Amino acid sequence: MHDFDYDVVIVGCGVGGHGAALHARSQGLSCAVLSGGDVGGTCVNRGCVPSKALLAASGRVRDMGDEKHLESMGITVPGGVEFDRAGIAAHAEQLVNKVRGGLEGSLGRLGVELIPEFGAYGGPNTVELGNGKKVTAQDIILAPGSVPFVPPGVTIDGETVYTSDEGLRLEHVPEYCAIIGSGIIGLEFSDVYTALGSECTLIEALPKLMPAFDREIAKQAERLLLTPRGIDYRTGVFASKVTPGKLGEKPVVIEMIDAETKELVEVLEVDTCMVATGRVPNTGKLGLDKHGIETPRGFVQVDETMRVLAGPGGAVADEHLYCIGDANGIQMLAHTASTQGVSAIENICGRKHVVNHEDIPAACFTHPEVAQVGIDEDAAKDRAEAEGFELGKAVGHFRANSKALAEGEGDGIAKVLFNKDTEQILGVHIIGLHAADLIQECANAKAAGTTVRELAFTTHTHPTLSEVIDGAFKECVGMHAH
């Protein structure tokens, strides 16, 4: 019909762009991906992948150093545990290279053209590569991802004051580290650092720690992830000024002000400071403003089919322009970006597809893990009141689970929130051993519309951790778990 270079051009080669490209090829569409020299994006290079390597290595150090836990199983480790910081860092780097290579290889094998330049929107069907070069396509998907947010007043030197980008290289293990932000990134780093012998302080601007978690789960997380590790915290304060130091010579100075009154409340001196205050969209170079497309705080506005809107509440800017992943800000998770990429391709193929973001699980890979899908208890109460149904709640305990007890890991709970009238799941929140794997059953059930009653009659393997969830589902309908 049209003389374009490709059916689809994707700007960005993170998990979202990669997922969209694979699905485009599976649907027989010709496809090019503009990587901007960053194959793998944040997740592979500076996020999920290297952080899991650090958590795996440091978690083993923690486990092998926990004498009481080992003694309870009749095990002793003579001479204690030693680790090589450079070796742990190398483990993370090797994993990144392996995963990135696999991702790049899969694109090549499927006939996706990988172009190393950055791409900017050049108007309908056109992506500009700079230097007067451009490529054309029937449809364009923007997947530029995000970058760490550094608040005003914070000076980054990459060594004593740094973001997750630098932290994942593990160039040193600080004696005393302050972490600004108590979200998933901050919690995971506090887990790594304390396992390797650091002291940590969390600084949170909001009144409550771990604002992304259900409140009951956050309380459990404080009991399991902070208190026994000596991690202290400040809430309701901004780190208004952070001045870098010099390793081993001069401390980092953090000035904290009250979030409400803006008065100086404390000055903290630490060896290093990690800034984990969230992420902002990497959309500055896309050139959308030149085409009258508004991006408040950098976020590209999209409709339910991932088509780009001219602005908040505006009309579709271009029927053939889509934006997926962190850049649209709906849910800043790697697997959400991939799901949105597949959805955009479905819509490009003329099969309307809408992602239900409440069915997408999320996880924090601390020891123990925290995972969730759907809405939290506060939101569920609000929804029950607004829609006039009775809210149901049931809790399963790891301490009643044979497999968890065999591992000496009986801490944690799984909480199911559901509509008592329809028996539909509203949310599931888990803290405990392998919570990130356990949540998937709940996410699948929620997405499929499986009721808690149907789940209560589903057989779970014994003895496995999945019986923690089974117990909660049985409690939902007044049955007794075995």
TrEMBL record:
Cellular component GO terms held in the UniProt record: mitochondrion; oxoglutarate dehydrogenase complex
Record: residues binding FAD: 52, 119, 326, 332-335
Cysteines paired by S-S bonds: 43-48
Any single biological process term in GO: 2-oxoglutarate metabolic process
Keywords: Disulfide bond, FAD, Flavoprotein, NAD, Nucleotide-binding, Oxidoreductase, Redox-active center
PROSITE patterns associated with the record: PYRIDINE_REDOX_1
Molecular function via GO: dihydrolipoyl dehydrogenase (NADH) activity; flavin adenine dinucleotide binding
Pyridine nucleotide-disulphide oxidoreductase dimerisation domain boundaries: 360-470
Record carries keyword Flavoprotein: yes
All residue ranges annotated as the FAD/NAD(P)-binding domain in the record: 6-341
The record's free-text note on cofactor binding: Binds 1 FAD per subunit.
Cofactor or coenzyme needed: FAD
Catalytic-site annotation from UniProt: 462 (proton acceptor)
Similarity field: Belongs to the class-I pyridine nucleotide-disulfide oxidoreductase family.
Name this protein carries in UniProt: Uncharacterized protein DLD1
The species this protein was found in: Aureococcus anophagefferens
